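testing teh design pipeline on a random one, pls ignore if ur not involved
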């Protein structure tokens, strides 16, 4: 059986999909709740022309829309790991993943430097090696969008050295995810909402505690408060892996 047996035809039609180390089968059989939430978010997600052509902002609307679909159930998590030799700390690593629920990690890369993939895959690998997750999911830009960028004359904004599928797949084929199974979804032009520019106004909500910015529709602003983003550990906001320190 291939990954197509575990993912709906609608998602397969909307997204470019790649499966590494049977990630889709693991998600479907072992983590159905988390997988269903991811799939529901993918089906709801749409972007508008304004989302991809806007200038002058540090963060585009794409990550904000994904956060609005996944928070607060999916939380940012940090992993601290130490290598100890004869009671001396030789190495200390810190890794962060933007979205984790249970033993499933999820991350989005829309338009960052392509080296960001190395950080993401290394974090997934570390969380997996230290037995914090069993599988990871990456959402990124499909190169199918290039024709749309050319149509809107914004190709220079999404340069060759930014995060896109042709930069991610060679890293995965080279095994930079280690033993961690990873399912990849690529955002395609079929997710463009051509009516959204006329009907949707995005309202930014500043989460002072986490620094994250969430979004909601203008008609709902003032009537519905979005939950604040929190981390897995309530007190410290980090996942301390000292109990799992590696000893040599």
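output:
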């Amino acid at each position: 059986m291939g990954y197509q047996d575990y993912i709906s035809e609608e998602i397969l039609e909307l997204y470019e999909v790649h499966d590494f180390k049977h990630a889709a089968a693991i998600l479907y059989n072992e983590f159905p709740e988390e997988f269903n939430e991811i799939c529901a978010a993918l089906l709801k997600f749409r972007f508008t022309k304004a989302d991809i052509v806007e200038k002058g902002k540090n963060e585009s609307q794409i990550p904000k829309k994904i956060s609005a679909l996944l928070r607060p159930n999916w939380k940012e998590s940090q992993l601290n790991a130490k290598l100890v030799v004869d009671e001396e700390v030789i190495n200390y690593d810190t890794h962060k993943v933007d979205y984790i629920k249970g033993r499933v990690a999820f991350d989005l890369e829309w338009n960052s430097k392509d080296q960001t993939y190395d950080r993401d895959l290394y974090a997934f690998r570390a969380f997996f090696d230290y037995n914090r997750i069993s599988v990871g999911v990456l959402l990124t830009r499909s190169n199918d969008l290039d024709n749309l960028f050319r149509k809107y004359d914004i190709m220079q904004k999404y340069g060759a050295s930014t995060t896109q599928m042709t930069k991610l797949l060679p890293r995965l084929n080279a095994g930079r995810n280690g033993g961690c199974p990873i399912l990849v979804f690529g955002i395609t032009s079929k997710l463009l909402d051509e009516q959204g520019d006329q009907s949707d106004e995005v309202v930014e909500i500043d989460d002072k505690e986490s620094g994250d910015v969430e979004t909601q529709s203008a008609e709902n602003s003032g009537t519905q408060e979005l939950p604040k983003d929190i981390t897995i550990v309530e007190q410290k906001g980090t996942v301390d892996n000292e109990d799992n320190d590696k000893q040599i």
